[in-house]
Write a structure and sequence with these properties.
The complex is a heterotrimer of chains A (about 325), B (about 270) and C (about 270). Chain A has eleven helices and seven strands. Chain A has about 325 residues and is α/β, with parallel strands linked by helices. Chain A folds into two domains: about 90 residues; about 180 residues, no CATH class. Chain B has a domain of about 100 residues: Rossmann fold (3-Layer(aba) Sandwich), CATH 3.40.50.300. Chain B is about 35% helix and about 25% strand. Chain B is built from ten helices and ten strands. In chain B, helix 6 links the parallel strand 7 and strand 8. Chain B is globular, with a radius of gyration of 19 Å. Chain C has ten helices and no strands. Helix content of chain C is about 85%, strand content about 0%. Classes of the chains: A alpha/beta (about 325), B alpha/beta (about 270), C mainly alpha (about 270).
Amino acid sequence: MQNAQQTARVGLFFLLGMALIWVTFETLSGGKILRDKGYQIVAGFDTLKELKEGDDVRMAGVKIGEVAATRLAGRRAEALLRIDTHQVIKEDASAVIITNGLIGTAYVSIDLGSDRAGSLKPGAEIRTRNTPDINEVMAQIGDLGKKLEGALQGISGAFAGDSKSPGLVQRIDQLVTDNRENLSRTTANLQLITDKVNRGEGTLGRLINDPKLHDELVAGVADLRSGAAQAKSFLASAQSLVDEVKSGRGTLGTLVFDQKAGDDLKASLASLRSVSDKISRGEGTLGKLLGDETLLRDMRSLLRKADRALDGMGDSGPLTAVGVVANGLF
Amino acid sequence: MNPSASVTSPRQGSAAVGVSVEGLSKDFSGFPVLRGISLTVNPGEIFVLMGPSGSGKSVLLKHVVGLERPSAGRVLVDGHDAADPATRGRVRMALVFQAGALFNSMTVYDNLALYPREHRLGTEAAIRDKVMRSLQMLSLENAAGKVPAELSGGMRKRVAIARALVMEPQLMLYDEPTSELDPVMSATISEVIATLREQYHVTSIVVSHDRDLALGIADRVGILMGGRLVSLGPPADLRAPSDPRVADFLNPSIDLRNPRFRRLAG
Amino acid sequence: MAAETSNPPEENESILTSAPRQAVRPFLRVLEGIGSCLRLLLEAARHIPTLPRQFGRFIEQCYLIGYTTLPIVAILSFFIGSVLALQSGYAAANIGPKQFIGLLVGLSMARELGPVMAAVLLAGRVGSAIAAELASMKVYQEIDALETMNIPPARMLVLPRLAAVLAMMPVLTIMSDLVGWFGGAIVAKYTHFISIEPASYFATMRQYMDFGDVLNGLVKAEIFGFAVVLVCCNIGLNTRGGPREIGASVTRAVVTSLILILVLDYFVTKALM
């Protein structure tokens, strides 16, 4: 009868429909029913971000499973990862959530781990790393900025000081101002000494005429020179420090970018210039003695002590002491 | 009216049932069709209901099988309210519709076999046997494979009766079973109705205009006019009706000089 | 006293029937429709145990509802998918992300147009046929005959149809989805201002669509199909009057079905979100 044919057609039709639904399901949802084997591991994170059920689990970019479930476990979020049976995850491998692009898809990336490590057992917990997302990074940069500002304020304070304690540059400035008298007197004395030496008078005059004394003087000068050399090496390291600052390395480097710190620095430099201006006024005299302008400000207390030393040139002891003083000064 | 003594399963026992109509009124959207009809049909009786067209005969039948709900009063079939759908499960009733009401999508055979199949009365072979016997009774064997659209009006009517027979009813209701039939076939139908009563002791209610049928097989005849029962009695009463309207209905004289439509207008 | 006052209520009723009732008649009819549908549904549900016996009828209805409706569903879905691809391609031509046409067509077909188109065609092709058949059975007293035979129409006529539509709607819908997708893919490849490869068309679909989207559509289709068949059965069975009413019933059944599909669509879509 035609009835049988009709039944067969309807049956075929229905089966075809079910098959199509199944194919669609397989294609769109990756056939969870069929492949819902494999094994599960647990991955705990501070936050799962945009990770949701059904997202991929990838190892070195290859899909090896998917997120079976997400849940809160106490103070952290856990993702249950379903891993294909034949995929091995090393014990020291770690999982990271990667958020992908603007559309907001995410996946769990598991690294390969080391060769020698054992493999994770089903149900075990995998190590995880929390990667900062962009919002967190921004927040940290903000923090860093604040800290830098604080540091720079400390530095400029050290240079400029405040009303109670004078800054470094101010101190130097004051030192030079206070000792101007001494300095000019020292210079005058030096002139006098030179004259006396020229005329063969006094201790120095005798020194030149007396070979024994001359030798002693030479040794004293050598001492003085070694003291100067030490001073120079210190300055060189100071210079390198300055270079570092100039090249923008280190915390100080950022000084350049900060308007306020820059202003402070400018003020400090102005003070420094006034110091050097003052020094340059005494240049002619001091220059003759040492031939190194940069040492001028470093030499001012040395000269004071040298003045005293020259007064008692007779005994050889004090001359060697100059080196010691030079050392102590720096 | 009829004290329901038999609560036994109607399917097994083929005991005839009585019908009692108590003060039945029915109106369709305000228009009264039946007005307070009371009558009793005894078990095994052939009751013929006559009356002019539109007098409410078919509506009364529909009340008996529960297709219509009364506006007032009630109809009891074997003591059960006919308006209750459960009554159809208790009492086997068959209505032979005026137009047949055959299932147009089915063959004659399937029309007849539907009832026993749906109610699972026997195997397919037993059903076939029963259906063929019914068809033979109304000489319809050759029509078994046809669909109703291929049948003439008279054949449809006979198929409708055959379909009712297959149900082996306790109560048979016929709505104009002999209309549109030639005199011989009308006589055959009348004989079938009478034979069923003889063989199966079926209670029958026949709505008909057919005077021959009424006089030939009826135990009692009721005449319905304008929604009221105007006459009730044995067929012998019909020969000498007291009511002039009834007399005119039963023996209409054709008077060409004074036609009725002019009489009414005047 | 009770006998004396039995007349006034009748008059009250006739007053009620006139003016105020006239105004609320449309609402009453809607409520009446909903009520009778639910009654029919309950009546049919009562006979679910008889369904195995009615396997033949179930298959016959499956054949009518599913098998014979498929060609028109396939043709219509193909063109719906094509037009979707064409229109979205036209819109995307100036913006750029043309490969997302695949996703757009895929989602639209699966979630919305597949089920709605299948249901609309069901209403037009099957719903009208059901309404016509049942209305003619009612007008020619076949329904009455069934009732006198103690065979409830809900069991013999309604239940197999409801069961069949439930079985066939997913099939029709998935066909509609797939044909629509492929129609879109073909148009996307061969239209000069779109011309994207089917591979990338389907890639976006696969990447961003879930079976849940398709399932959503299948559930919707089930609801639409069920509602359409139920409503058409109900309208057919409630036909009154002569043969002329058969045509009126068919019209009413189709119009009601279409309205119902779109109204249900909103609520079901929202409920499934």
